[in-house]
């Protein structure tokens, strides 16, 4: 079933919002203001989902997608928009989430980072179809869309031949590209160095090829500098690095002269953090269960939670420690906004919120908020 619909504003998740009579339709493949033929792909009680099948009146920022599978693959949401339009869309999403969920009027703009729109992604998880071909899954589907001949446009030159050697139908192949190496991991066979070696602001890190690390080449340094600029750490201060992973921010705080305790649920990540940053202390435990073990007072806190956010109990525990500054690193603007509302209840407010386009061509955004006590 198709409809000719006028597309409205952008919504979180890579959608624009339209109305089919009185019902809301979340649409992929369109830009605000366009008139488009929309195929209704899912019916729901409160809203429908749809996708653009023909653009009747294009927006000024529309371009021809550079990847031939852009309309099928679930990885890239905005390949049909030029860079400035992508930044506009992401800025609008961050502003809307902050306004709606935290009551914050944000007048910032999502910032582009060096490297452009392609060739930036250093971590990939390829699906393998029934014929052994590498690909990605379609949006909201388990269907595997095989890679085009040119490979993945946003990938940072992965070793496709080696990845195909270990590909087995129905399995996945994880590829990680470090500062000085590339790794392909198949169902049973690894190729190249594992862990992968990274270097950020003069410090070396090891991280498993299937472990957590920022996927954009520029992300670790960009986010670390934003955290340091916002916290302005002073020698001798105490700091918590919560959801610390393999120690990226802990290393930067140690190098700034801080006494650092990191907390992370993944035991393998903590083992690597201890080797990466031997000057810091680390605890391997789910943060929600370790809150009672946190110091009673601390000068600085870095929060880098998973996509769901930190939550009210973690926010209360952080505020109870009385830090003079908190750096909140967020990969989801709605989770950030919810947690900023919790911080407001504890007397903390953001002095700055920055958004970074560390996932070009996609709907994802990374933000860094700096919070300080009010009054």
UniProtKB/TrEMBL annotation:
An example Gene Ontology molecular-function term: rRNA (uridine-C5-)-methyltransferase activity
Domain TRAM as annotated: residue spans: 1-54
Keywords annotated in UniProt: Methyltransferase, S-adenosyl-L-methionine, Transferase
Residues annotated for S-adenosyl-L-methionine binding in this entry: 214, 243, 264, 304
Gene3D superfamilies: 2.40.50.1070, Nucleic acid-binding proteins, Vaccinia Virus protein VP39
Active-site residues, record numbering mapped to chain: 331
GO biological process, one term: rRNA base methylation
Keyword presence, Electron transport: no
InterPro entries xref list: MeTrfase_TrmA_AS (IPR030390), MeTrfase_TrmA_CS (IPR030391), NA-bd_OB-fold (IPR012340), SAM-dependent_MTases_sf (IPR029063), TRAM_dom (IPR002792), U5_MeTrfase_fam (IPR010280)
Family named by the database record: Belongs to the class I-like SAM-binding methyltransferase superfamily. RNA M5U methyltransferase family.
Name of this protein: TRAM domain-containing protein
Lineage: Bacteria, Bacillati, Actinomycetota, Actinomycetes, Propionibacteriales
